[in-house]
Structure formats: C-alpha cells, structure tokens
Design goal:
With about 70 residues, the chain is mainly α. The chain has a single domain, classed as Orthogonal Bundle (Arc Repressor Mutant, subunit A), CATH 1.10.10.10. The chain has 4 helices and no strands. The protein has helices at about 10-20, 25-30, 35-50, 55-65. α1 packs across α3 and α2 packs across α3. The radius of gyration is 11 Å and the shape is globular. It starts with 7 loop residues before the first helix and ends with a helix.
Length: about 70
C-alpha cells in the first residue's frame, strides 16, 4: 500500500494529528463533522495496513522519504 491511495482528507487528517491537533479541531479546520474525521482516520489505518496512528505516521514519513 502506498500513501498515494489515501484521499486528500485522510492525508490532511493524519498530518493535522501528527502536528498535535485534536479530532474536533481537525473537523473544524476541514469543515467536516467529528464522526466524518473519525471514519476517515479509521479508513486510512485500514488502507495503510497499520493498527495505530503512530504506525501510520511512520509509514507516511517513510513513503515521503522514499519519494525524494
């Protein structure tokens, strides 16, 4: 699985979380509902084939480094 399979909202939500934003803050920033962001993040974990947000952050960082 590559990070290119993630939708823009999934990538943005993961990046906001990595920067210390809460899910309610992300929902407000993105103009979405909290449950939309929660579902988005759960789907991102499934697509990335990881179990934790920390694993997702690592996988995204590794993929980003591989592209440079």
């Amino acid at each position: 699985m590559t990070i290119s399979n993630l939708c823009p909202l999934q990538m943005a939500s993961l990046r906001w979380l990595a920067r210390g934003k809460t899910i309610p803050m992300i929902a407000q920033i993105e103009g979405r509902r909290v449950d939309d962001i929660e579902r988005c993040l759960n789907d991102a974990l499934l697509l990335l084939e990881v179990e934790t947000l920390d694993d997702a952050f690592r996988k995204i960082e590794i993929a980003r480094c591989d592209r440079t």
